[in-house]
Amino acid sequence: MLKTILKVIAALVLAIIGGAFYLAGASENVEPDTLEVADLSPPEGLMTIAFGSCNREDKPQDFWPVIAKNKPETWLWLGDNVYADTGDRDQLQAEFDRQKNAPEYAAFLASVKQVYGIYDDHDYGLNDGGKEWEHKEMAQELLLDFLDVPADAAVRSQAGVYQSYTVGEGNNSVKIILLDTRYFRDAVVPPTKKGHRYGQNANGDILGEAQWAWLEKELTNSPAAAHVIGSSIQVLPQEHGYEKWDLFPAARERLLALLSATRPALPILLSGDRHLAEISRVAIEDQFLYEITASGLTHSYEAADEPNAHRVSPLIGEKNFGLLHFLAGASGLQLLAEVRAIDNNEVLASLAIGSDTKPVNKAALSAIIHPKDDMLSQLKECPESPNCVSTQTAQADKKREAIPYTGTFEEAKEKLKRAINSMPRTTLKSESGNYLHYTFKTFLIPFTDDVEFLFDEEAKLIHYRSASRVGHSDLGANSRRMNKVVKAFHEQ
């Protein structure tokens, strides 16, 4: 009799375990009751370069997360990266160190693949200075140190900080050409017009013959699909009375003639210096040449009001930065260039052109590059069954506290991903903007459960929902799991 009872009990236990394993296997194929979100990953063939200038290292650096939101691969400094105005080595070094050690900037550095740059006058050491500056070798050395340029790089052994780099490959390759407009520049001359700071040095030069020869070589027969040419001072504008290439008209004409002769694919000029932003354009034979000025990361000329016959955008007095979105497609490389507000990431001016520099449909290109800017804000409600916990549920017995975080949204998301990746039997199923969806498999009997996270960037909170796919009661498994996730997150 006892043997019979034990056999029945054993059979029931085996049946229960078998049923549990069957349900566990079935749970993997059950359609999850999770949010349906659009794919916010960058489109294939997209490359983004961000740039800016005029940054006072002694002012708040809390704007870097705004730039990071746009997910640039590359950052370009266009000069006045710090404000030192000194020939004292220790002081200039201290200002560069202050900027480099700012926590927000350090976090931004970790988010981009590469940083390149040039100086302008305030980090060169002499306001509106040129080749006469006696400490220019020291300025070159400390700038390259700030940018972490390798010791064996060619720019380390030459006079001047002009450099070139190629980012991307094939049909999406962009050559970045950075000019040194200080080291070899001839003297500025007194003004001849009322209200102007300087006049024209008719035969003066900016680049010096060695840099001119290098530039011609970089442009001639270049295989790159686009060419970004960075100048610390403006190239195209001619009417304002401050520093610009037009103070040296022979040099300006020489540059435009060189671009006309070499005809590099999709050329775009970048500049800083002015504490304002604008887009300028001139025609060179059958092509357009555009210049995007983005100046004023920490301060700007809010009352800016000056003529520029070449301007094709609003004149922007807000603090700003620039973005170049290059998108490779069947019709060649296209460029969406944007000037954005440093305070809220608002687009203040934009430009959309194709590989022939002619305008393309800006709205259509923008829709591809920015498929959805809205952030999700609400997870689904938990079911009535007890196998779910959530920070956003209206059911008191399933309600949990959201996870607070410090630092940027991007840093918190990477921290959470590291915490979950350190846990066994977890798989990232979906990532879109501020949303993450993971599956967790339980120990011994591998039930598949869904865990979702939503980041509230304004409140600096991480909301979550952990729910079983099958069954009714989870015996507290979802609650225990999320306690472990929260603990692992805070221990990172």
From TrEMBL:
Coiled coil: none annotated. It comes from the Bacteria. Residues 155-301 form the PhoD-like phosphatase metallophosphatase domain. Gene3D superfamilies: PhoD-like phosphatase. PANTHER family: CALCINEURIN-LIKE METALLO-PHOSPHOESTERASE SUPERFAMILY PROTEIN. This is Uncharacterized conserved protein, DUF1499 family. The lineage of its organism: Bacteria, Pseudomonadati, Bacteroidota, Saprospiria, Saprospirales.
